Structures are given as C-alpha cells and as structure tokens.
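TL;DR need structure tokens for one chain.
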Amino acid sequence: MPHGALIEATHYVGPPIFWGVAGATTATIIAFWIVFYVWLGGELWLGRSRRAPAGAARRDDGSKWLLISSVWVTVALGMGLAFAFPDAAITSGRGALFMAGLALMIAGLAVRYYSIRVLGASFTVDVATRSGQEVVESGPYRWVRHPSYTGALLTILGILVCCLNFVSLAAIVFVAAGYAYRIRVEERVLAEDLGPAYRDYMRRTKRLIPFLI
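>> reply
TL;DR here they are.
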C-alpha cells in the first residue's frame, strides 16, 4: 500500500472526540467536552435538587433508575463502539457532521432547561404528583407533553453523532427504550391523578415532537 493511502486508511480510526483528529478541529473538540461536562454536571445537579418533595405521591415503578441506566449505557456504548468498529466510521463530511452533533447537544440542553424552567416545581426526577398540581400548557408544553425529554434525547443523539460512527448511532435504541418506559409510567400516573384535564391535554398534544410523535 502506498504511503499516502496508508495515512488515508488510518485517518478515520477512532472517534475524534478522543484523538483530536479525523474531521474535527481542536477548538471543536474542546467545545464538545465543555458541553459534555455541562450536560453531565447538570444531570447530576437535577438528580440531587429536583427530587419529589415530602408529601408527594411517588409512583415511579423503577423508571428513574432504568432511565438513568439507559442514558449511561447509551453514551458509554456509543463511544466504545466507535473504537470497536473503526470500519464503520463515517468517512465523508466528518467536520460538518461533528459540528452538527455539537449543535444538537447545545440545542438539546437549551430545550431541556427551558422546559424545566417552565414546568417549575412540577418537574421532579421521580414520577410523583402533589396536592393541587395542575396541567402546565405554557411554553413548549403547548405542543408536546415531554419537551424536557425531547431535549435530553437531542443531547444524547448529538453525543453519538460526534462519535462519527454508524454503529455508535445504533446505541440510541437503549435510551429510547428507557424514555419510552418512563413516559408510559408518567402519563399513566398523571392521567389518574390529574384526571380529565390531563387526559384532554393528551388528546391535543404529541409526546415528543410537535404533530409527529
């Protein structure tokens, strides 16, 4: 194999988030890790600060820990698969794709935290309801019932896109399954505890993407 061809063949081994080469500049890789740790720190903070208050009716059915596990399995597996299957690396448009993944991460964070702010005290990491709780229909909740989950999924998808590997993208099924179960548990509880107001809200809105899902 000619020397130039050898360089080209090895150029795509491993995800750029670790090697700092192969389709991403040093600045964008630094930006990736900054956004990644902002996301990580934010999720840890939510886990500690947004638990259900005393007196709230917790009806989680294990969905919190299943969801947390699915998130970390997806991220760890996505990064690991990029190393395990270098032949599945995406080889064209890598710089633009890396930037697109980074943009997804940032957009996901913005959507998630805006949604949490709008929901206010009703947002907890446990599935729980409290006395006097009402259906929130302002901000992004006008169009979807779980915009904070939409934001979380966008961020995780962005992380997988930044791995620049087709096999890594397949890891999204784990976190998708985790959120599907969480949403099913949460909507059953809200429909029972908030009554007709929430059931009517369910009929008028989609779960994650306006007019689609």
